[in-house]
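Quick check before the chapter quiz. The format below is the same one you will see on the exam, so make sure you can read both the input and the output lines.
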Amino acid sequence: MPDSFFDNPELYRAVLEDLPTGLFIVDRSRRVRFWNHGAEQLTGHLAHEAIGRDNVGQLLEPCDRRGQPLSGEQGPLTATLSAGRTQQIAAYFRHKDGHRVAVQVRTCAIRDRDDTIAGAMVVFEAAFVFRDDSSGPPMYGCLDPATGIPSQSLTRAVLAECIAEMERSRHGFGVIRIRVLGMDEFRSKHGIQSALPFLRTAAHTLRHSLDPGIFVGRWGEDEFILVLPSGNHVTTVVAAETVWSLITHSDVSWWGDRFPVQAAVMYSVAQPGERLEQLLHGLEPAHAAAAGRAVGAAGV
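Here is the expected output.
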């Protein structure tokens, strides 16, 4: 290949633009200088919306699974820009549409010829491969039209199959129920369609932030059900707390205002001998709707 290829800065820039991962570059003052196509696709923010901003943390609002911020002094950019240390973390970015996206992030220092730190490069990619349930014959005609996830009837069938398999294997499974709060009041104030963005945001957060092995389905008007393949109680509790944190750190833009998504989360672990009605009854404690945190079902 001719030497001129390697001497052309525009070709290097084109390579960075087309990388199959998100990438952006900031200078010493944290001002965004470069934002590639992968970053646009993963975050929803276009290059012209990001380049020139001097606080990318306000744009992406990165947090950990507990909802604790990972920007400013707590973020990986601080260590990279101040000491040149490469950092690698798991994080959850806020998508432009308001939902959370699980990502793996790596920050690397960019140095001048005199070895001083000139800025940092941030490379990130989706932590989980997003599965489009709308494709393929298994899900055809079984998706909820409002959110794009499996419908309540399919979710009920999945629960029934899990219970049948549990009786054969004698291994339980985790169940998490999520209710998006405040929708009746929002509908009465803004109209019946106003609740749809909240439900879509919650659904997208679940689909983009959880392991694809976890089933996500619609349940009730303002509710969702997750089915975990593991019957481990600790795993289920951690997943429930993570779900609550990520959903409540998502938001919806409505006529220029941002509204946080509020949710109640309940969990249980199905045990051999338990019927579907018993399992669902155990996920119905009235106090869960006002608890504001992950709440264990009665008797768990």
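If your answer matched, good. The longest helix spans residues 152-169.
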